[in-house]
Amino acid sequence: MKIITDDLRGEEIRRLLEEHLEDMYATTPAASVHALDLEALRQPDITFWTIWKESSLAGCIALKELDKHHGEIKSMRTPRQLRGQGAARLLLQHLVDEARRRKYARLSLETGSAAFFEPARTLYASFGFEYGAPFATYVEDPNSVFMTRLID
């Protein structure tokens, strides 16, 4: 599989992000959905990567710089039909390596509290992310779980 920095202009990524938003709104009350659309992901403080298995899009992940020491994981997604093939693990390792290269002290993320999000929470925990309090502009929400990992 190959990871590239993506400009968010391809049809494949547009479709994957639409699938992502559809799932978020189907599993979480609208006021608690923090997923970003294409325009919101095209901000200068966000770096976006895709992973490809031959010519098929196998997933995406984004890193938002909150400040020079703190990054946030955004828009981690693998297509439904390609789950369980290791793309998410490779993307997450790539993002952690990039955070280390940028000399961030920590990475944080917000994900859902519903059972739908359990595989994601398990993956994050396997990378050393621990449950914690809201960060940045987030507030306590029974539909959200907050996780953070210190970068060594």
Give the SSE map:
Blueprint: E1 2-5, H1 11-27, H2 38-41, E2 46-53, E3 56-67, E4 70-77, H3 87-101, E5 106-112, H4 118-126, E6 130-132, E7 144-150
Parallel strand pairs: 4-5
Antiparallel strand pairs: 1-2, 2-3, 3-4, 5-7, 6-7
Distance N to C terminus: 26 Å
List segments where confidence is low: pLDDT < 50 over at least 5 consecutive residues.
none
Reported CATH architecture:
3-Layer(aba) Sandwich
Structural class: alpha+beta
| Average pLDDT metric | 95
* CATH fold type: Aminopeptidase
Domain module tally? 1
List the strand order in the largest sheet. Answer: 1-2-3-4-5-7-6
Q: Count of DSSP E strands?
A: 7
Q: Helical amount among residues, as a percent range? A: 25-40%
Query: Class in CATH?
Result: Alpha Beta
Mass-distribution shape: globular
Task: Specify the CATH homologous superfamily.
Answer: Gcn5-related N-acetyltransferase (GNAT)
Rounded radius of gyration (Å): 14 Å
* Percentage of residues in DSSP E strands: 25-35%
Count of discrete alpha- or pi-helical segments spanning 4 or more residues: 4
SSE series: EHHEEEHEHEE
What's the story with the biggest beta sheet? 7 strands, mixed
